[in-house]
Amino acid sequence: MKLLEEKIRQDGKIFEGNILKVDSFVNHQIDVKFMNEIGKEFKRLYEGEEITKILTIEASGIGIACIVAQYFDVPVVFAKKAKTVNIAGDVYTSQVESFTHKRVYDIIVSKEFLHADDKVLIIDDFLAQGSALCGLIKLIRDAKATVVGAGIVIEKAYQAGGKLVRDMGVRVESLARIQSMSPNGDIEFID
Amino acid sequence: MKLLEEKIRQDGKIFEGNILKVDSFVNHQIDVKFMNEIGKEFKRLYEGEEITKILTIEASGIGIACIVAQYFDVPVVFAKKAKTVNIAGDVYTSQVESFTHKRVYDIIVSKEFLHADDKVLIIDDFLAQGSALCGLIKLIRDAKATVVGAGIVIEKAYQAGGKLVRDMGVRVESLARIQSMSPNGDIEFID
């Protein structure tokens, strides 16, 4: 998605350690108008697919997922990082490793909100090692629901996650696939 | 907002300890179509006010804020619970007490995303003790920006937060104000 690549080049900030910050429009401030363009693009890519629910993970996936969901006219469910004392009863659970926060945490989705007849599109901001995406796929499969695919805003294609998940037979559509980047600001995208 | 009161009566679940769960449309699953009705209502209430930014707090405020922001045509900024190693540099910070999670945490907003000329509408799902709302107001005031008001989906009006914040001179619009509720399912709203 050319518009997104331009936006990343213009507003993204690259730090040592292969860290790309897109805090000005995705991860801290959210450019809601721009997210609508992202929603339209996912709708175009998944046109014709039956989708009953969008699944994402807190926190930064939620805003994107809600805007995107409007184009599919379905509810959003967000997996929670397990800590709340308000979550009671039956949940699906899996483990996710955060390389940013350098820890492993449990994510949960209440069984109330994922059913065997659900056709689920996963939406998330980043795909790098694929840990969050694999965790979400496990939740859906534990519910015996169908994984229609994943819609990712930015894929770090030089990391293992994209191949890992595609090799599982899951369709992954990433709107910007970064081949390489360097702290001086150069970013190469895969067409 | 009658539609919201009906939805809370129909889909909300009340637990011991004055806990209201609206997980089926606000806090875990998000009914995006319904959130659009909430967005329209906040737009109606704040019609004529100049607003340049919507501020909320992760995680469950983000989805609502993004949908609402579409009616004001402004970006969303969400305050982060301080933990990430990706946040560097200058931030505004304040402390918030979570009664649900029984802990105090720091919230931060990058100075990049709040400026003295911003007119900020705060959006959040719940108002109870007012700790999150006071924390967000402090961030805005530290940035010398203007607090236009707060848009709250559900106010527990029998708790201290609403009065506390209104007494600070901040406009608070809550779409459903709960006067009392009991675990047998009875909920009374303030008109």
Structure, briefly:
Chain A has 191 residues and is α/β, with parallel strands linked by helices. The first copy, chain A, contains six helices and eleven strands.
Describe the global form of chain A: globular
User: Kindly state the mean pLDDT of chain A as a whole number?
Assistant: 94
Largest interface by residue count?
A-B, 43 and 43 residues
Global structural class of chain A: alpha/beta
Number of strands of chain A: 11
Main sheet characteristics of chain A: 8 strands, mixed
Succession of helices and strands of chain A: HEEHEHEHEEEEHEHEE
Adjacency order of strands in the biggest sheet of chain A:
6-7-5-4-8-9-10-11
Helix count of chain A, per DSSP?
6
Distance between the termini of chain A: 9 Å
The Cα radius of gyration of chain A reads 16 Å
Percent in strands of chain A:
35-45%
Topology, element by element:
The structure is a homodimer of 191-residue chains.
Chain A: H1 2-11, E1 13-15, E2 19-21, H2 23-27, E3 29-30, H3 32-45, E4 53-57, H4 60-72, E5 76-81, E6 91-98, E7 103-110, E8 119-127, H5 131-142, E9 146-156, H6 161-167, E10 172-181, E11 187-189
Parallel strand pairs in A: 4-5, 4-8, 8-9, 9-10
Antiparallel strand pairs in A: 1-2, 5-7, 6-7, 10-11
Helix pairs in contact in A: 3-4
Report on this model:
2 copies of one chain form a homodimer. Chain A contains 6 helices and 11 strands. With 191 residues, chain A is of the alpha/beta class. In chain A, the strands form 2 sheets. Chain A has an 8-stranded mixed β-sheet, sandwiched between helices. A two-stranded antiparallel ribbon of chain A has the order 1-2. In chain A, α6 links the parallel β9 and β10. In chain A, α3 packs across α4. The longest helix of chain A has 14 residues. Chain A is globular. β3 of chain A pairs antiparallel with β5 of chain B, so a sheet runs across the interface.
